[in-house]
Amino acid sequence: MYAIVKTAAAFLVAALLAAPAAGRVLRATVEVRGMSCPFCAFGVEKRLRKVAGAGGVEVSMNESRATVRAEDGASIDALALPEAVRRAGFTPGPVTVEAEGTVRRDGERWLLVDGEAILRLAVGEEHPELAELLAELARQETPARLRGTLDPAAGDPPLLVAVEPVAER
Amino acid sequence: MNRPPAALTAAALLLASPLAAAPITFSTALPVTQGAGVLRLMAEHAETTSGEGEIDDGALQLVLAWGLSPKLTVFGLAPWRRTELRRRTPAGLVSRRGSGLGDVTLLARFTAFKRDAPGSTLRLAPLFGVEVPTGRDDEADARGPLPRPLQPGSGAWNPVVGLVVTRQTLGWQLDAAASYKASGTDDGIDAGDVARLDLSYQHRVWPRRLGGGVPAFVYAVIESNLVDRSRDRTAGRALAGTGGTTWYLAPGVQYVRRRLVLEAAVQLPLAESPARDDDPSLIVSARINF
To answer: Within an 8 Å CB–CB cutoff, is residue A44 touching chain B?
Structure first.
């Protein structure tokens, strides 16, 4: 019986870690390279609105970026943003996300978890203060809001680098 | 009868495709979003005088562009033309008129090179296609068949190739294009091929400083079109009064929003060989993103 429960738990953890969407991403900003006129911005907005979890899109021409806000209760599939920008005919740059969840430690990995949505958090040895902060947040088990940049090469679950806490609104 | 006003030749209409803050009189290399389209409605009017009389030429063109992929865009161009020839004769003023759907053009444009940076892009795109003889070329009035320049269609399949280079920043845009239309043969007449060299500079004049979001832009536009048309030939002989080279300069203005572009330009024939007496032509156009 114990073996069955253990196997089921392992499958559950594996399923959670393989969740296709990024974590509970409330807001994501992608740099759009090559977008230089208002008429071009329309296509970028149109493609970004089709990304899963996207509720609204705001483009800033002079900052060359587009910000996607999540639908109520949804999480933006931040990994899909670069492809959306490519389909609009432009070149995607870094994707910065703001995500909310509970910080957990899984072995050597730090995770931001909200239900089935998981984000991995990169914590370098050069930032011990971040590790301390995450450890504290994990102990408190209270929802935390973090900001970071997606590592496009990391795959699923999305990996956030340059993680920092988001100031209280 | 000479050729129709060069500003209204199929080649001119052909490359006036409906893209982002693009040139008014020809195409651009800027992208159309995959799964999205742009519709352009363009009106052009010109009056010319030739040895045959006064020619009043108007065209409405509907252009649809669709992004098949981030690099591949297809275009369909359907012109409606109305051309009138007025000639004073000893018997009085004689007027002949032809109108109707012209030749539909199907084009594909492929982005072969792009270099994107924040707030700027450089793109190179070859395009190719064909003008399909959908327009009637056998229109007649009470005096008999209309002369060829009054016919809405050419009656021939006319392949087109071209190359467009675009450099765009938030403040200005430069487009350069070269294109060639190989005209086919209809009723034993081999219409002259058309070669074009086009250049366009668009400068954002408003807003002077960019704020946040997506503000509407106003561009001042200046365009140059060098159009060379070979002489029409039949049975190996060149037809008199056909062919020639014209250099146009077209100042204009564009109002560009997210979903809409409104624009107008006056195309001035600065130099013509052989000498003609073409008047400036007016081009107004609207483009809609969908």
So the answer is: yes
Q: Which of A10-14, B26-30, B168-172, B203-207 has the lowest mean pLDDT?
A: A10-14
Q: Are A91 and B289 within 8 A, CB to CB?
A: no
Overall number of domains in chain A: 2
A93 vs B: CB within 8 A: yes
Provide, as residue numbers in chain A, all residues whose Cβ is less than 8 Å from the Cβ of B30.
37, 40, 89
pLDDT, one tens digit per residue, over A30-85 is 999 999 999 999 999 999 999 999 999 999 999 999 999 999 989 999 999 999 99
ipTM, 2 dp: 0.90
* Domains: count for chain B: 1
Residue A38 distance to chain B (closest CA, Å): 5
CB environment B136-158: b (16+ within 10 A), e (fewer): bbebeeeeeebebbbbbbbbbeb
**Inter-chain CB pairs, A–B, below 8 Å:** 114
Nearest to residue A102, comparing CAs of A93, A112, A94? A112
CATH code of A139's domain: 2.40.50
CATH assignment at residue B35: 2.40.160.40
Could you list the residue range(s) of the whole structural domain that residue A50 is in? 25-97
Task: Provide the residue range defining the domain that includes B267.
Answer: 6-289
